[in-house]
Design brief:
Chain lengths: 424, 244
């Protein structure tokens, strides 16, 4: 039993270290390709773009989202904003229609049908060369659009470009922990972008050539993670997705564990279900990095985190069991004994400890590189510790639930998540 | 269909190589520290062995010396701390690790030697001590864990109680000799107190009831300590007074 446990532990540890080394090697190999735009750039040509803003009960953030879009540094006659209210039950529609000017900002209201229906609604109205989508809880930096478009201009093979999604104004510990995750995401997605391994084109302002939808069809429901499905569909057909680290989009992150749990449950559930739908990609070399690296390691990491979680629970229960026996046998005698003398001998020096240290160093390096890439500064902050602790404790719960839900095919709805997010 | 970037197989292999190297570093560092720990245990055992030999030699000379002159080579605390370390290593490296097994054999022999010597000293010099030989096994024995807690607790309560614990399943002829001398059954845990075998779990109350002299000895000890303290205070008072 002990040996089986060790083999599984080392297996997961090996894959985790492998993934981090893979990213690090990619970074050293391709760091010259990570281009930085000057503060203000000019494009040779300004193609037409439609940005869809699907919203459901976003009265708190929609105004700010729209204002940030209107402030985008991009020729107004080339940019159309289509706001689609997906049957909100709050004041969203009243706010949204004030932006409609009949020309380059258009507001529509439709029956609730889920995010993909709202985006497809905008897609049908769009005649532009490029199509972007922005979640109504996110705000764009005014240079973001030009910087994204520069990637299309520089490489005609780029069929979609995703920007850097950063956490907006993190206030509490939960949000600060997420900020660390988003910072790390900047680095990881850029590395995946450089090697054709991106598996999601996230809601905050991922931009596509309209040709993608003309060729491959519109968004699908895809277990409420349409942004993962479209990326996988693109990868399946060899459509290149790149990542632009200096186009900044700020997104509101869940401010409580419960909200974070619901969001991640949807993401992981979607990941698992989309993985099942696109299983024919797995390990097929013709589909490139997504098939050989991103999807397999994503799948393994879910089981790895669960394995570590159960290990911790098992050890905790064992200590409680032993302490209970001790109390039952001799009472509280020596239970709170303080005559503990430090002896280095009792420091755990098993290989597991050193491998975990190596892994944590690599993870922290990823966060710092992500920070360096997004803000230019690689600061170590205490929030990195929050991130490690909070995610180690909470992530297994949404992963477990997501696996369970996948098995019984119980969807976690986007509108339900919205409801929870806005009701608090 | 568009074309994917060609797969960089070389990179997959290089990453595999680097990861394996990092793993090797982790495992090597671990084994370096484990070896250091084993060396430390061995050196503790050697020191105890030397101390024991010295005590034995002193004891042989006892015929010519008075009991007062025998230096107090009470090894129990050293043996106890060694026992903790060996049991920790057992937990980390496994019961069947050859280093651990060999250290444990050595430790058991040291215990037996200490037991025999202390018994002789006690008889010869009329000291009051109670000797407990505790036989346990590591696997499938919840009562052994409980018995361990009881004995640790008792040892702290009664300093004159000397506990020697032996792994019943350890392959050591000296332990087998003891189990056959005292007729220790394989129904573990079993304890031998002053030569008498008690098998099965014995609670603190059971042991205290069987050996009322434990309590008597503790009271005597306390009284002696009190007396010593009072004498010390009395003798030290004039010094304090002159200082003032």
């Amino acid at each position: 039993m002990e040996q089986v446990y060790s083999v599984i532990f080392y297996g997961f540890a090996f894959v985790s270290v492998y993934v981090q080394v893979f990213f690090l090697l990619t970074f050293f190999d391709k760091r010259r390709h990570i281009s930085w735009s000057p503060k203000e750039i000019e494009l040779k040509r300004y193609p037409t773009i439609t940005i869809a803003v699907p919203c459901y009960n976003e009265e708190k953030t929609i105004t700010k989202t729209m204002e940030s879009l209107l402030a985008l540094d991009y020729p107004k006659d080339k940019l159309t904003l289509i706001i689609v209210d997906d049957g909100s039950t709050d004041n969203t529609w009243e706010l949204v229609k004030t932006f409609d000017n009949g020309s380059n900002v258009l507001a529509f209201r439709k029956e609730n049908g889920g995010k993909h229906t709202a985006v497809n609604f905008a897609l049908e109205k769009s005649t532009a060369e490029f199509f972007g989508c922005l979640d109504a809880d996110s705000f764009v930096d005014n240079q973001a659009m030009k910087r994204i478009m520069r990637y299309f201009e520089n490489d005609p093979r780029n069929m979609a470009v995703i920007p850097s999604v950063l956490s907006y104004n993190p206030k509490n510990m939960i949000q600060k922990a997420q900020k660390v995750e988003y910072d790390m995401g900047v680095y990881i997605k850029k590395m995946l972008g450089l090697i054709g391994g991106i598996q999601v084109t996230p809601g905050p302002l991922s931009t596509f050539r309209k040709k993608v939808f003309d060729d491959l069809g519109p968004y699908r429901k895809a277990h409420n993670t349409e942004d993962q499905e479209i990326a996988l569909r693109m990868q399946e057909h060899g459509y290149k997705i790149d990542y632009c680290p200096d186009a900044y989009i700020y997104t509101n992150t869940p401010n409580s564990v419960v909200k974070l749990y619901r969001q991640r449950l949807r993401w992981i559930y979607g990941f698992i279900k989309n993985l099942v739908d696109y299983r024919h990609l797995l390990f097929r070399k013709k589909y490139g990095t997504v098939a050989l690296f991103t999807l397999p390691t994503g799948m393994i990491s879910i089981f790895g985190i669960l394995f570590m979680f159960f290990t911790v629970i098992y050890n905790l229960l064992r200590v409680i069991y032993e302490k209970t026996i001790q109390i039952n046998t001799i009472g509280f005698h020596n239970f709170f004994s303080l005559n503990y003398k430090f002896d280095w001998f009792f420091i755990d020096t098993r290989a597991m400890l050193f491998l975990s240290i190596i892994l944590y160093i690599l993870v922290i390096t990823s966060v710092l590189l992500g920070r360096k890439m997004s803000t230019g500064k690689a600061n170590f902050t205490v929030s990195i510790i929050y991130f490690i602790i909070i995610y180690s404790i909470v992530a297994p719960f949404w992963m477990l639930r997501a696996i369970f839900n996948s098995l019984i095919s119980k969807e976690s709805s986007w509108t339900f998540e919205r409801r929870v997010t806005t009701s608090n | 269909m568009h074309q994917h970037e060609p797969n960089d197989w070389k990179k997959y292999v290089i990453v595999l190589f680097i990861t394996a190297t990092l793993f090797a570093i982790g495992i090597w560092t671990s084994s370096y520290f484990t070896n250091k720990k084993m060396t430390e245990l061995k050196s503790i055992e050697d020191k105890i062995s030397l101390d024991l030999m010295s005590s034995e030699t002193q004891f042989s000379l006892l015929q010519e010396l008075s009991c007062k002159d025998i230096s107090n080579t009470v090894l129990s605390s050293e043996l106890n701390s060694l026992a903790e370390k060996i049991s920790y290593s057992e937990g980390n490296l496994g019961n069947d690790n050859s280093n651990v097994v060999s250290l444990k054999r050595y430790y058991s022999l040291l215990e037996i030697k200490d037991y025999l010597l202390m018994k002789k000293i006690t008889e010869r010099c009329g000291e009051k001590s109670i000797f407990v030989l505790y036989f346990y096994k590591n696997e499938k024995c919840d009562d052994c864990t409980k018995q361990g807690y009881v004995l640790t607790s008792l040892r702290e309560k009664y300093p004159n109680l000397r506990v020697y614990s032996f792994d019943y399943n350890l392959d050591l002829s000296a332990i087998r000799a003891m189990t056959s001398i005292y007729k220790v059954p394989d129904d573990l845990p079993a304890i031998v107190i002053n030569g008498k075998v008690h098998s099965g779990f014995q609670s603190i109350e059971d042991i205290e009831k069987t050996f009322p002299e434990l309590e008597a000895m503790r009271k005597e000890e306390e009284a002696a300590a009190k007396k010593a303290a009072t004498t010390k205070t009395k003798t030290s008072t004039p010094v304090g007074t002159t200082n003032n």
